[in-house]
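Cont'd.
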Amino acid sequence: MATRNRTVVYRRHRDAVKSVRAPLFSSASGSGGPVIEMASLLGSNRSSYAPLSTEDPGPSRDAFTVGLPPSWVDDSEQVAANIQRARAKMAELVKAHAKALMPSFEDGKEDQHLIEALTQEITDILRRSEKRLQKLSASGSAEDSNIRKNVQRSLATDLQNLSVDLRRKQSTYLKRLQQQKEGPDGVDLEMNLNGNKSRLEDDEFSDVGFNEQQTVKIKKGQQEREREINQVVQSVNELAQIMKDLSVLVIDQGTIVDRIDYNIQTVAVSVDEGLKQLQKAERTQKKGGMVRCATVLVIMCFVMLVLLILKEILF
Amino acid sequence: MVLISAVRDYINRMLQDISGMKVLILDSHTVSIVSVGYSQSELLQKEVFLVELVDSIYKSKEPMSHLKAVYFLRPTSENIQHLRQQLASPRFGEYHLFFSNILKDTQIHNLADADEQEVVQQIQEFYADFVAIDPYHFTLNMPSNHIYMLPAVVDPSNSQHFCDRVVDGIASIFLALKRRPIIRYQRNSDIAKRIAQETAKLMYQQESGLFDFRRMEVSPLLLVIDRRDDPVTPLLNQWTYQAMVHELIGIQDNKVDLRNIGKLPKDQQEVVLSSEQDAFFKANMYENFGDIGMNIKRLVDEFQQISKSNQSIQTIEDMAKFVDKYPEYRKMHGNVSKHVTLVTEMSKIVEERKLMLVSETEQELACNGGQVAAFEAVTNLLNNESVSDIDRLRLVMLYALRYEKESPVQLMQLFNKLASRSAKYKPGLVQFVLKQAGVDKRTGDLFGNRDLLNIARNMARGLKGVENVYTQHQPLLFQTMESISKGRLRDVDYPYVGNHFQQGRPQEVVIFIVGGTTYEESRSVALQNASNSGIRFILGGSVVLNSKRFLKDLEEAQRIARSSTAVI
């Protein structure tokens, strides 16, 4: 894949042009007259294609400082930073999941808490970013609107991918957790361990069904599972909401909307449409009855005033 | 793959070293070049948040100096003018200029003069000056394509412009591939000869430093041929998916515009048919209509299965699974509707114009002998009320191209019938085609009736019978490719430029058809490449033709030819 860099040639020529232009202006900071003469002389000597600028380049260059980006850029940068933070937290979550799935002797309650806290945090970040993203379209000028829309789209795609990722990690974790708890024959493993021990001790009661200890265990297991299910439902709901809101913004890959030339066309069309609407609005406003009424009233006021003055003078 | 990936690499390199928010500014040609290889979402990932055309950009005056401007333009004088105006009053913080072809020194000087504020950070030449519509097929989308049919003296400046653009396009292909070819051209075509010689001059003399790449043992081959050597292929109706869509509806830069066809929902009015992005299309683009129907039915059945399972959401797990799979589901839904819509519309058109009947006769005319039977068939179809004007014209043209010498009386009869039946098309156009591409003007053995070997082959084929009457035609390009593969392309017909010579077979061949390619030919090339013969063929043309476009070019050329002879 061949390329050729012409920057060196370009810079050389640009510097040459600059050095020819510069001594011209160093002596003529205030006087426009002689500068114009010298410029025209120079212009006729070289075969120049554009008229040399007769302004002093100094102040104009200072005036062209690197402008500050508009305010919505701060918002978009915030959202981008949030997405980064959410990604870091997801990595932590994965580690916490792995740790919780490892067989341990403790209850594992603190692991659960950590996982809950992390999941909650991530969902919060996503929700806040999404709200901020929605606000992005409202602010800013009309010129910027294309850029804003595109920035929105790209951030929305990132957010959507993150939420899908979170969803998937959660569901795999839960699936594995359930598998672990239930074991191969669908019986609670913990219960089994205790059950075995108690069977050794109370041999004669082993076939009476569940004893008290085991009933309590079952109830606690059920409660826990219920809680987990509620959690899952809640997070599914939240994420579904986020995805629904985002799907309006995200581009479907491979469709016509994803084509660059289609987007340029629609911009041109909408700009033209916008211009037409503005012109129509201007015309209706000018022709508007309001303006006419107002002018008539003002004229009548003046007429009345004149009559009043006349009345005073004559009488 | 190689063409599309070359364009993508160029665009990636343009954007990757520039950090921060960017605006990409293109001209009307580079828009097509970029759009077929790069998608909007990929641009967004590279932080390009605005795309504009160079000629419309200064309608708005708001300065956006927090953006960096990346220009990708063709090095034409209009673009340089636009750039000069924009550099004089810059709107953006930094300017990075990329040109799709070789810049002249005067153009660089012009730009340097205008760049008083010194906003330009780099100027580079990135040679992506062609539209890579398929992995081995490119086009140049030239607007006044008909110029190639006229001798240069009729309109010398436009002829020169045409040749320049073609030479630029071919040069950029070889720069993108980093090779310098041996050049051959079709002997009896003046314009092919001119293009071949100018390309050789560019590559071996004017810019020989730029083209001085590492030499492999076998140089690649550039073959420049003329559309008029095979006027039959663009006139035929097509029955394989991609070619059929272009023939009946029209594909432009891999987009299909369905707005004039009928009442369609908003998201199906313009669709994308790209083998890179659509796996179903990639698998079916060269299949014939019957097989496509079956495959689409299978696709629809699969889709219905999935949507049924989506509807029965009973448990939490089902809900979770649905939310996970929703984006894929939506994409599949869009894809299925697109293909179903296309096939439905095409079936409607086939029904209306009785194309199955017409096409059978067309294929007979193109492939098999039997002048008497052909005359009868064409006469019947001309008498048939439901055959449209353009189809009548095509039939008469095909008959004329095949039997122009055999029975002039009957040919005149057909002309008269055409004149009486068809309001729009006059037989003068058929005579023009014969003048341009008649049997005296052609090199190749278009109908397989010149040498004994071909006649024998045809007879054998006739006896064996064909698999599918509608797809029995092989474009002449197929024979040319076979000759090249066997190293038997005749020097008499396709001489070398200057003192080039090639021993043995090339491993890479670029065939450029002056006047335009067709999708039937690109299918032929793709199938040839897939057969692993050890040679890689790339096909390109000034436009991509269908019968409408070819006839329009003929009409335009005829009009100009008439008016110029009237002047003289």
